Amino acid sequence: MNLLKNRRNIIKTFGCLILVIFSTFFLKISATEEIYNIFIPSNFKYGAIRAAEQKTMFDEIIKFAQKELNMKISVILKGNSDETMYKENVEEIFNEFKNGKEGITILTSALSYIEAEEKKIPIKPYLTVGVKGKKEANYCIYVNSEDGIKNISQLKGKKINALNNMYGSLLVLKKILVDNNINTEIDKFFSQQVYYKTEGDALTSLLSGKLGCFYSDDVSTQFAMRTIYDAESIVPLACSKGYTRSGVFGTETKDPQLTNKILEIVQGAHKNPNLKKFSSIFETFGATFVNVTSKDYDAWRELHKEGKKKGWYKEIENWEKRFLEAKKEFEKTKKGKVK
To answer: 60: helix, coil or strand?
Structure first.
């Protein structure tokens, strides 16, 4: 359980550190004190943590940054705080950028960035988190090898848990199915979507035969498996190609030299002696900050284009309704057990 808890803390810490370090990206050098605003979607969440709770976590490290930079940093939540939405609530933030305001935002779904491009929002990628030198995530459908499932077609009518429920990862799930000759709508192919709060709970149910399969990214799953007895029975049945992780996006900076200087700070953040509380987590996860460019998100652009052309987004909306039903059932029982 401690390892799983640490995994949650890792993801939350990524958001905290990225926020603080990148807050200097768009500073204007001035003799007077300035307030720099960081925009966060109100339904922003890493590891099922609400934005309001996330903001509380930011406070301690932001105080450190303010002291180091001799400036004031303000974290502003924008948009409706409805956390049942499978899409990030970023419209108000993008409107700020479109109206000429400089700043940054953290996106948990790379597709939010792709859609911003379509709407001519002046935004570009700056940073993501690389795990063991890799900035791409592979999404996989996992099964219990003892169940004898060798082909995705054998999952028809089975129960699934897709803990990573942002619509970018769900679009990848649809792509995996289609690439394996499964053209049935997602919510009709699987019999039931079962909700769990953690990967560990879902994987335990997979091993006990209460789930047909589990869907998530490779790194999250591998880390969660460290907490599970007999985890070697959990194997990937089918995986996607690599998709660059989301991260920090923002407007163009007016000072390239300042940008380069901050990039150096970012790259060494996991070794900063003033952030020992967080550096140990980075070491555990094998994570570092990695620069990204627009081209790194080409795979997401291709997927988005295909999804729009083939009507996959409508399927995902229907899938989301079933997810919310499963979540309500979980909260009603307070047990999270598959019946």
So the answer is: helix
% of the chain surpassing 90 pLDDT = 30
Its sign, for the CA torsion 201, 174, 304, 138, is positive
Same domain, 66 and 197: no
Q: From the CB of residue 94, how many other CB atoms can be counted at a distance below 10 Å?
A: 23
Give the CA diameter of the chain.
69
Based on the domain organization, do 19 and 33 belong to the same domain? Answer: yes
Q: Does 338 fall in a domain?
A: no
- The phi, psi pair for 136, rounded to 5°, reads -100, 150
What are the pLDDT digits (tens) for 251-273? Answer: 776 666 655 655 666 666 667 77
Pull the structure tokens for residue 259.
């940008």
Q: To which residue do tokens 């990206």 refer?
A: 25
Task: Look at residue 207 in the predicted model and tell me its pLDDT.
Answer: 94
Other beta carbons less than 10 A from residue 331's beta carbon: 11
